[in-house]
Every structure is written in structure tokens, then in C-alpha cells.
Amino acid sequence: MSQTNLSLDSIELISPKYYAEYGYPYEEWRLLRKEAPVYWFDRLPSVPFWAITRHADIVSISRQPKLFLNAPRLVVGGEGNAGGDTPVRMLLNMDPPEHHAFRSLVNKRFTPRALRPIWDRVDDIATAILDAVTFDGEETEFDFVEQVSARLPIWVIAEMLGVPRSDWELLFDWTNQIIGASDSEYQPAGMSAMETLTSARQALFQYFQELTDDRRKAPRDDLISVLTHAKIDGKPLPAFELMSYYFLLVVAGNETTRNATTGGLQALIENPDQLELAQRDPGVEKPMVEEILRWTSPVIHFTRTAAKDVELHGQKIRAGESLCLFYPSANRDERVFDEPDRFLISRRPTRHIAFGIGEHVCLGAHVARIELQVIFRHIVARLERVERVGPIERLQSGIVGGIKHMPIRWKLRPA
Prior knowledge:
This protein has a 5-stranded mixed sheet. Strands 6-16-13 form a 3-stranded antiparallel sheet. A two-stranded antiparallel ribbon has the order 4-5. The termini are far apart. Helices cover 44% and strands 14% of the residues. The protein has a single domain, classed as CATH 1.10.630.10. It has 415 residues and is of the alpha+beta class. It is built from 16 helices and 16 strands. Strand 1 (38-41) and strand 2 (49-52) form a beta hairpin.
């Protein structure tokens, strides 16, 4: 939609079909940041909400978990969105003190120090993935999402969980159906978005119940064993909460890195000067990953619910009303970032909130950073040529800004 045609009465904010066709509505978000940073959006058949688009407001709301609750609504449902009241009980929709108790069960496994041993394994997985699409220095044409970016994160989280290699593709299929439930490509014949989501969730629960039963008898050094034998207040996790924990780790452990990897390569293709800089200066590796996260912002939104009446930018938010936090908008906020609409891999410092902020900051943020640093280190070092050879196909979702397909042609040097 052209900026000259925009008005507050006509903006589109949460339609999965819109995201699939046009990508993120940056111009709409820019208009809201300028004119209506707290905007009542009630043009949906589902729950209306306050759209929150400025960086400072999202940070402030996220740091007040007792005033702005995660429960009961994790996302808002646009047309076809498998959203609304969340049919799982996991960290993302828990509030204090329950949230801390559940997060502490695995928190130590996700610290930078605890993750040091996985660097080499991630490196091995990334090398194997890239070698599979490299043929003696010849040009290769393939779908980057299917062959590269979708494989690394699901393989890494599957290995951390303790899922057998033979079942890794099952996890990949279930996460596609859960996140892409609104997308016809991932809907089994005759199923609606909600039916697709429910079916995939039930299949995932059943699968992890079998692995849980196995780990009760024979624990291993993996996350399934940790959670199977974990206790809160001296009691094991209830079955539903345990299965929901697996649900979170599989879905969240896949989608952010997958879409940041795809969007990162897209950004480097569209900004060849930044790709040249990355190849000239290995010192930009870490800031490049942070800029990729800011630029792609794979999670579109999460929702908070006001615990009591509160006023923000002159708007009266009543207890029980939903606030929709648009993270990609915050990560392009001109009040925080110089030249926010430019992709600059040497940007320092960066205050992006692609992983959220506050007590609900992404549990797997350090894992995602490891995966992104490793895969882009290999790509940048080995890449001789790259170009897109077909249109990008985006995921039909109002929750995750995903790219389903990105056909490319590239030439990599052998490792």
C-alpha cells in the first residue's frame, strides 16, 4: 500500500493473507508510530486489541509482567490465524511466579557457558548441510529454505532434546503445520487452520509422550530427560504442562533461526555492498547477526492483557483488554535506530528486541545466535556468487514472518 494512500481507518495489521502477499506492513507501522502509537484495532471478527508499535512502549510493557499479563491470550487472531486463547500451557503464556518456576527447570542448559560444547556440533551440522548443496565448486540451483535454513535449527534442537535422527523430519513437518496452520500448503486435505493446528499438536504430544515414557526408564543427557525428571514444589510436571514444554522448545527452537537465516541471506543478496563488507572484515560477524535479527524480526507479535486500567499516550486501556506488541515495528523505530530502513551489518550497538525483552526474553536466544553465527560464517567465507532465481513465497501467518521458499543459484567454494 502506498504511503500517500494510508490512513488510520484503512491500515491492515494482522491478516495472514496480507503478510503472505506483501510482507510486513512497514509503512502502516511507521504511520502508527508517528500518529497513533497506542491504536485501538477492532476490525476483526475476533478479539479487538491495542496495537503497540514503538520500541520504548514495548520494552516498558514487557518489563511490567504483573501489570501486563501473558495469560490468557498469547496472540490475536486475524483472518485465518490459528490464534486467540492458546491451547497449551507453556512459558510464553505463564505469569509470575509460575513462569519463573517453569523457566528455571532448563534455564541453566541455555546459558552461553552451558552451550559452549555445542559450538562444534553446530559447526559440523552446518558444514554437512552446505556440503550437500555444493558440487565441486559448480553453481547449484535449489530452494534455500528447504535445503539450508529449515534444516539447521530443527536438527540442532532435535539433538538437544534427544530426538532420534530418523524422526527429525517429523518435527519439521509438525512445526510447519503449527506455525503455518493458516497456510494452504501445510493444511492436510479438507482441514481448516484450527484443525491443522490441533492435529499437529496432538501428534507432537503423542510422540513426546512415548519419548517421555522411555526416558523415565532410561534417562540420558538430553532435555527430554531433564524435563521428564524435573519437579516443581516437589512434584513432577503434569502431563499437559510437560507436553506443552516440548511444544515450545520444538516450535520456538525452529522458527526464529530458520526465518532469520533466510531473511539474512535475502538481505545480503539485496545489499551486495554489505556482503562484500562481510567478506572483507570477519570482525563484523557478530554485529551482522544482530543486524539480521533486527532486520528480519521473525516474530511478528505477542499479546499482553491489562491486569487493571492503565493510561498510555493518553489512551485509556481497560482491565482485560489485549495489547498487541509488534516487534518488527519496534525494530524499525526511528527514535532508536539511525537509518532504520537500511541494512547495515556493522551497526553498533543495536537495541533490537527480536527475541523480546524482560522476563519473557526468548529462552533459546543464545542457541539461535550460535546457529546464525556459524551458518553465516560458513556462507560468507565460502560464497563466490549468489542470486535469486525465482520469487519469494511467504508464509501465511500473522504470528511468524516466515519465508516458505526462496529459490537461489549460488557457487560455494569447497570447505
